[in-house]
Amino acid sequence: MVKRNENIAKLQAGYLFPEIGRRKKALLEKEPDAKLISLGIGNTTEALSTHIVEGLHKEVTRLGTSEGYTGYDDDAQAQAFLDKLKTRISNNWYNGIISPEEIIVSDGSKPDCGRLFFLFGNNVSVAVQDPAYPVYVDGSVMIGATGNYNSDTEEFDGIEYMRCTEENDFFPDLSKVKRTDLIYICSPNNPTGAVATKKELKELVDFARKNRSIIIFDAAYSEFIREKGLPRSIFEIEGARECAIEVSSLSKPAGFTGVRLGWTIVPKELKFDDGQSVGKDWQRVVGTLFNGSSNIAQWGAIAALSETGLSEIKETVNYYMENAKIIKNGLDGLGIKTFGGVNSPYIWAAFPGKKSWDVFEDILTKAHVVTTPGAGFGKAGEGFVRFSAFGKTSDIKEAVKRLQENLK
Ligand SMILES: Cc1ncc(COP(=O)(O)O)c(C=O)c1O
Question: Which domains, ranges and CATH numbers included, belong to the chain?
Answer without folding.
Answer: 8-47+309-406 (3.90.1150.10), 53-307 (3.40.640.10)
